[in-house]
Design brief:
The complex is a heterodimer of chains A (about 575) and B (about 180). With about 575 residues, chain A is an all-alpha fold. Chain A is about 65% helix and about 0% strand. Chain A has a domain of about 240 residues: Cytochrome c oxidase-like, subunit I domain (Cytochrome C Oxidase, Chain A, Up-down Bundle), CATH 1.20.210. In chain A, α3 packs antiparallel against α4, α6 packs antiparallel against α7 and α6 runs parallel beside α18. Chain B is an alpha+beta fold. Chain B folds into two domains: about 35 residues; about 120 residues, Cupredoxins -  blue copper proteins (Immunoglobulin-like, Sandwich). Helix content of chain B is about 20%, strand content about 35%. Chain B is built from two helices and ten strands. Classes of the chains: A mainly alpha (about 575), B alpha+beta (about 180). The interface between A and B is large, with 74 and 65 residues.
Chain lengths: ~575, ~180
Amino acid sequence: MTFVDKFPEEAKLVRWHFGVGFVALALGGLFGLVQSLYRTGYFRDALPIDAAQYYTVLTGHGVLLALVFTTFLICGFFVWAITRSLDRPLAHQRVAWAGFFAMLVGTTLAAITILNGFAPELPFGSADVLYTFYAPLQAHPAFYVGAALLVVGSWVVGAEYFLTYREWRADNPGERIPLQTFMVLATFVMWYLSSFGVAVEVVVFLIPWSLGWISQVDPLLTRTLFWYFGHPVVYFWLLPAYLAWYTILPKLAGGKLFSDPLARVVFVLFVLLSTPVGFHHQYTDPGIAEGFKFIAMTNTFMLLLPSLLTAFTVVASLEHGARQRGATGYFGWLRALPWGKPSFSAMALAGLVFAAGGFSGMINAGMNINYLIHNTIWVPGHFHLTVGTAFALTMMGVSYWLVPQITGKQLQHKTIAAAQPFVWVIGMTLMSNAMHRGGLAGLPRRTAKPLFRGEGAAPFDPVVGSIAEMQLQIAVGGTLLFVALAMFLVVMTGTWLSRSGVGQLSVNGTIPAPLSGPADSPRILDNLKVWAGIAVVLVIIAYGLPLYSMVADGILSPGAGLLAPLLGL
Amino acid sequence: MRIHRFEKLWLAAAFVLIAAFIATIVYGSLGAGVAMVGDEGGTVDPDDPTASDNFREPGVYQTGDGEYAVYVEARQFAFAPGTNEPIRVPADAEVTFYVTSSDVTHGFELVGTNVNTMVIPGQVAELTVEFDEARTHHIVCHEYCGAAHHAMEGTVEVVSQDQFQSQDVPEVNEE
């Protein structure tokens, strides 16, 4: 029975989340195209923006894609995963809807302040602060309130998952938690622990400051709270992709998951290690002692373990699927995989691209190697492989498979859909390889005109290739990515608007049991309270002392003494 | 819990890889002597950095035999010194940069080198380097700092020891 027929209310909730996410994707993607054509110098004069508005575009691109698109897709996807794997409706749908509307209102507020950069007649003021909103750059209060509502809204939707699980547990004492539910709950344990940091930053410091209630904030303290959240948020993006790779992708390949217990181990490791790593974004920050940077680095490298395990399990599951389809040979099985099926090819290609992104991430993670690439265009080159492909392309693959099931409509424009993942990957390969090489040559990120002197590339000395050739690849790659995005949205819109009930759907939500099931694995794996407790201890070790010293030297201003600014001294 | 033989091998290989990565970083720190920007620079009043004991009037100072200190103040959208006049330092000498900001967060990077730090109001970034050859380096502000961020840049001129001695650089006694 199709998901929409069995759980019509939940399907509606997923549709609304996906719908808002796709609107954010469309606008954020358009901004991405503008950036790639402006920054590289192609069509700079033809585009209707000036250099200052480039940063408005950049803020919109980051906020709409990295924060809005991701959060809506994840919250919607997890509603499906919880309902399907527990095989029961949500416990209190109103809670989930309340969370959804909080996120929607927050997104609208933030979007208006960002668009204010193009049209000052819009209400509120502007917010050209990029998605990292480092103080003392200041946005209109509505931007910060919007960001807070987006995060808190996701907490409320998340509470719904736990409430539904609690009801299921009451009916099923002693049973192992179904794998997808386990993954959803583990992801949200991590999310609650880590997004708390940005909530404190925004609610305690930035909102009162933007309203003029306090005169200043400590730039290093707020920045540290941001990165306390800013790295785990990448696992908030990644783990839903893992859920898809572990539970949906093997089925699409014609096989089954290799090992259920190791999938649980992987998620437990992410609960433990995702948060005490944020200082690896602050390796070059003054005011943080080297030792704390080293602790963060060690934790970061340990996080390679669950990702390398995932690489093994996913590839093994795919090979098993291919062999079930009759494939032979060491590598011959790769040809037997259903590459023409867009849901499969999007997820599998996303996984491959993630492997490349993982390797550039290992360079980022190396404390002193980081000097070479910190804040160069290498960094966006890296995260367009991770959030920009491992997450985004996987979610496109999920959509090709899931949207028919939550709408009851056949996927339309199948030829466009089949080509789309390949266009995306070609565009990303062009753009990202050039960004990585440009970063090694010292080309900065986050700039409207990287070659300001206009004398060509004199200060930048690439190891391989030339700056001009990199700029061309970034512009062509960015354009191809936008084409692929438009193809995806055409397929989604066409499917959404098509008539329902035409023939039997070619997809279904049945997920085959893993080759090695959860039965013989230790039960403590399922005890998320224990893992959450250990995670908190690790966070205290990594963050306790440095946060204390940042607060003790003046909570609002470094060098002033703890309460001096509050007392007006 | 059953773990497949291949998976155990893979797991062991993953641990070796992780240990090797950490070892390369430790070698970089202890063997090659790449120190991280840390908290040595201390804190200053962001509104008036030079009022603090640990920051001087921006400029180049000689602090000892073959040792120089460069105090740089970053603000929208210039480095002082660096933007209006180049920072001149000698080759083959120990040069310590002290960089702070008196408005928003900036970046300070000499393109193509590992001189790369965030510049955060209230904090002093301290980096010690030695330039092997006489050449001009391009300073980039690599953190978005406002509408004209892309215009914020400067130069460091590394000159030979002989050329440098003709320069008039104040000598100070660094404790």
